[in-house]
Amino acid sequence: MQRNKFFIGGALILAAVVYLIVSSTRASAEYFMTVDELNAKGSSAINQSVRLSGAVLGDTIQYDAATLTLTFDVAHVPGDNAEIEALGGLAVVLNQAVNDPTRSRMTVVYEGVMPDLLRNEAQAIMTGKLGDDGVFHAEELLLKCPTKYEEAVPEQAAN
Asked: In the predicted model, is pLDDT for residue 26 greater than 80?
């Protein structure tokens, strides 16, 4: 009888631990969407918290230091790493995205200090919500700038 209580208690504790691991992993596994994917969702994406990735269009960057409001446009970049490598690497893909006027684009508004890495052809990964006006309101802004890492991957940067 005493043994059964220990087995049942141990099984309940194990089940609780497994549940916590699975639920926390699922909650933290947040993949980013591309500009095309977010545009395809249309009005169903409005006010939904998403992570968005795109190539920064340098000539659209506007920063108001008084209100700490940053506005810029991003162009569609593929979300699949294998596809990016097949197209010549991240630097090449970002360059093509910025220079292709037919790529879908989205305006981003971010309130905060302007990051040092914000420049033309940087990859922006933002967490935020799409507004009714079609503008993405970013709460978090992360940037990757492949030109900063040219020494690490000289063959990719040379392309």
From this structure: no
